[in-house]
Design goal:
This protein has helices spanning 2-22, 60-70, 74-91, 142-156, 202-206, 264-273, 335-343; strands at residues 123-133, 180-191, 216-220, 229-231, 243-245, 310-311, 314-315. The chain is α/β, with parallel strands linked by helices.
């Protein structure tokens, strides 16, 4: 009897152990959502800005790589965010990237995607700014902060005056109103002698985010090393959630530095915060940004490229906010990117609390 009972305990323990282990692993075997092309870590280190060889300007993916090493559970969280996003879009009958094969976007120049009707209406995200400064220039004015807010609202609502798609462009139907707006919730100012903060979230540890589940936190602090900014993707630690931007790349007036003086670093990094990848997928033609209506590309574009710029046998969408072109030469999100961002606000989505869900 003891042997029988002991054997049953072993079997039960093994079964429970297998259940616990399997819960830590992605499980899409019983669904129709294709996750075979999903990736998080990337070895690509191209950067947005003038220091191309240094590869230092936009560090969102580099920060993500480090966080994946520091937190083994982050991969599973980001997998779940992506799975939820694809499931939501599939339920809406919209194209969902999956299965690999087409590289950093669509394999065709012109793929039209219709905007979803999610019933959420215009989503307004309250924003806290944390201005951390060691000199008067870095203590940027309220006017400079307000100019960044104006850019965010114009860019995410397709009200930017510089929207100017090339004549005959295959992207004519792709520029979109994301129906996302931003309101200024408050500004915190902190004098600190630190000359540069780097990208290890030290500035966030010194000045923690305020109610990050319901507010976007933006730290304005000198990052150093020629880095414009970095953001945390959905699924990360709430204690480090938000966006960091160097003060000379905030807004359009005051202490700003050309050619990144039109507030598009803010638009780009908030795009990451709302679950958008770089337009080329951070992996040459072989990886995807998970958006159907963005063409494949082998890497970022810089400056103000001529049209058309062709890579991976398709025309690059160099004017997309998630490329690395100069501020004056990026001016659109696509419908596919809009849908992807809005999916995270749906009930159960990674940032649903921002929309009051």
């Amino acid at each position: 009897m003891r042997k029988t009972l002991f054997g049953l305990l072993i079997v039960a323990g093994t079964f429970i152990g297998c259940q616990e282990n399997s819960s830590d692993l992605p499980n899409d075997q019983q669904t129709k959502i294709d996750m075979s092309d999903f990736y998080v870590h990337t070895d690509e280190y191209e950067a947005r800005g003038t220091d191309v060889k240094g590869g230092k300007e936009c560090h969102s993916m580099q920060v993500l790589n480090r966080q994946l090493k520091e937190n083994p559970g982050l991969y599973k969280k980001m997998y779940d965010v992506e799975f939820s996003t694809r499931k939501f879009l599939a339920a809406k009958g919209k194209p969902v990237k999956g299965g690999g094969g087409s590289g950093g976007g669509s394999s065709s120049d012109d793929v039209d995607v219709a905007p979803i009707n999610d019933g959420l209406g215009i989503i307004t995200i309250p924003v806290y700014f944390h201005v951390v400064y060691s000199n008067n220039n870095q203590n940027i004015s309220d006017a400079q902060i307000n100019s960044q807010m104006s850019v965010l609202n114009a860019d995410f609502r397709k009200n930017n005056s510089d929207l100017n798609l090339p004549a005959g462009s295959t992207f004519e139907n792709d520029a979109t109103d994301a129906e996302i707006e931003f309101s200024l919730a408050g500004v915190f100012r902190h004098s600190n002698n630190t000359a540069s903060w780097g990208t290890n979230n030290a500035v966030k540890s010194a000045y923690p985010p305020v109610t990050p589940s319901t507010h976007l936190n933006i730290w304005v602090a000198e990052i150093g090393g020629g880095i414009l900014g970095y953001a945390q993707f959905p699924g990360g630690n709430s204690a480090t959630d938000g966006v960091v931007i160097s003060p000379q790349y905030i807004g359009t007036t005051g202490y700003v530095s050309a050619p990144f003086n039109k507030g598009r670093t803010g638009t780009h990094e908030v795009g990451h915060y709302l679950n958008l990848r770089h337009i080329w997928g951070d992996g040459r033609c072989r990886q995807d940004d998970f958006v159907t209506d963005t063409p494949s590309s082998d890497g970022p574009n810089y400056g103000c490229p001529s049209f058309p710029t062709v890579n991976c046998k398709t025309t690059d969408m160099t004017m997309n906010y998630m490329d690395y072109t100069d501020d004056a030469c990026m001016y659109m999100f696509t419908d596919g990117q809009r849908n992807r961002m809005r999916a995270i606000f749906a009930s159960g989505g990674a940032r649903s609390s921002l929309a009051g869900n």
